């Protein structure tokens, strides 16, 4: 199979590079920079090699470096950012530090005529993120692009098919980034672009069938997209040896517990244990109003329930997880620097003894996971679900949680989602839900005074959930949702719409 090797030097965007290559229907494999020898590269038949970015300076004593012989294999190499500087360094060039003038953000890229820039405007925007820069061009190379602050934004040695770009072609801010990668992959490396996601799915299944043969596998299934797709992939690979535990903590959306159970056990034939732990969670949460305490209680209780169920199954060899690439980055588990600690409930239940971890989605982005879900026959309804926090409705019932409050919120939330779902799919916000506030207000119903609870509706549009805009959903949708909620949900006398963006507000209220 035609493939590209991505040598990982610890940059933030490494998976993004792989994804951009995969989007052009060429398979890309990421390996740590020290894990492969030049001989093995030849043996594996890579059509091209990409050196990624990374946080180091090439002259640091422990800077990550690969063997110089890789540049002499005759296989085209593209160095990106740190990878570009390393390529210069290994080829006998010079790299300097511009400590007082780091280039960070968008810059105007001025390119020369060159096959790497075929179809790229002479001036375009690129994304820069560096302090060091190539100050001495190695013999055999010519500079093929510049920015105002960077005398060598790209260089090439056409005879040896070595290319280096200081900017990041993989990020969307680089206007012609995809075109530049395309020029590297096709005319330069000679790829044909016949790789499909279907191949990847069957490879994962084959790989895990081999790895998991004769082993008992356990997965915590939440019903979210990631764990659902992981469950299905592993079901194909391990069959009856896979057991999924679905902890129903009673804080799910209306009808969700039954939906997950029906989908996985009845429709897909997955070995599923549904633990009805609703009462147990409610008891633990009784009287607790502090948001962080509520989250903690749920996280701990989740692990306890999971552990108790797992113990009943006897020896488990493999613990599977639906970790996807952004989780790896966010929790700093990869080679990259830590961005923020991951806020998923529970995390790995370390109390359960197991020999291995299986994370079949570890290299994939959310939309790729969704595509795999569709390929595996998961219903679109499940694949396109909005994100749902691990602690569930506990962070959307403000203050103390009771069974009645949860039920009230489930009803109001179902109505709001139903009304928004009437909008065309591309007009829908990325996340929309109801919150049961702890405010009560006066109302009038018939001739009588009421003093009921207040529901807040929240809808946001976002690319990555790190920042989000409140959604301008049509007044008619809000009107219908408001009138249905006050009419159909007992105890609600007022509905408000949350018009705060993130930052300063978060998406969830707690
Ligand atoms: P915030 O409220 O931090 O939410 O702006 C950003 C996104 O993360 C979701 N969220 C969670 N997801 N476990 C999760 O898996 C959690 O504990 C959690 N808290 C928030 C939230 O729904 C939004 O999509």
Which hetero ligands occur in this complex? Answer: xanthosine-5'-monophosphate
Number of helices: 14
- According to CATH, the fold-level topology of the largest domain is Rossmann fold
Helix share of residues?
25-40%
What is the rounded Rg?
26 Å
Total tally of structural domains: 3
Q: Which structural class do the helices and strands define?
A: alpha/beta
Description:
With 510 residues, the chain is of the alpha/beta class. The chain folds into three domains: 3-188, Rossmann fold, CATH 3.40.50.880; 197-383, Rossmann fold (3-Layer(aba) Sandwich); 398-497, GMP Synthetase, Chain A, domain 3 (2-Layer Sandwich). It is built from 14 helices and 20 strands. It has helices at residues 14-23, 38-44, 82-90, 177-188, 197-211, 225-238, 256-267, 278-285, 291-312, 325-330, 366-375, 380-383, 403-421, 475-488, and strands at residues 3-8, 27-32, 48-51, 77-80, 94-97, 103-111, 123-130, 132-136, 142-146, 154-157, 162-165, 217-220, 242-248, 272-276, 318-320, 356-358, 431-445, 448-461, 469-470, 492-497. The strands form four sheets. It has a nine-stranded mixed β-sheet, sandwiched between helices. Strands 14-13-12-15-16 form a five-stranded parallel β-sheet, sandwiched between helices. Strands 17, 18, 19 and 20 form a four-stranded mixed β-sheet that branches. The relative contact order is 0.09. The chain binds xanthosine-5'-monophosphate.
